[in-house]
Write a structure and sequence with these properties.
Distance between the termini: 60 Å
Low-confidence stretches: none
Largest sheet: 2 strands, parallel
Structural class: alpha+beta
Strand order of the largest sheet: 1-2
Number of helices: 3
CATH topology: Rossmann fold
Order of helices and strands: EHEHH
Mean pLDDT: 81
Strand content: 5-15%
Number of domains: 1
Helix content: 40-55%
CATH architecture: 3-Layer(aba) Sandwich
Number of strands: 2
């Protein structure tokens, strides 16, 4: 049997896509199954207050955030986008 507690899961939520109700429920189940059992890393461009748009409802979103934030470290990075900065730099070099 494989020890699942040493496996990490990384997820990214896009502010441009929302899940169907069954998709949101499935993702909720994956996260809930890992709650207090295994590592989970989630990245998002949205603040928690806007996650209801992605997960199709405030109740499921509240339950999800309750589990995700119970034992967590939150890193907010509100700096300039690296990709955007590199794109601007490339465009300036191309124009020379």
């Amino acid at each position: 049997m494989v020890n699942q507690t040493n496996r990490s899961l990384v997820s990214w939520t896009s502010p441009y896509l929302s899940f169907s109700r069954p998709g949101a429920e499935l993702l909720f189940q994956v996260f809930a199954d890992r709650y207090e059992r295994a590592s989970l890393l989630i990245t998002s461009n949205l603040p928690f207050s806007e996650w209801g748009q992605i997960f199709q409802g405030e109740r499921m979103t509240a339950a999800l955030l309750d589990r995700l934030t119970h034992h967590c470290h939150i890193f907010e990075m509100n700096g300039e986008s690296y990709r955007f900065r590199e794109s601007v730099k490339k465009n300036k070099q191309a124009q020379k």
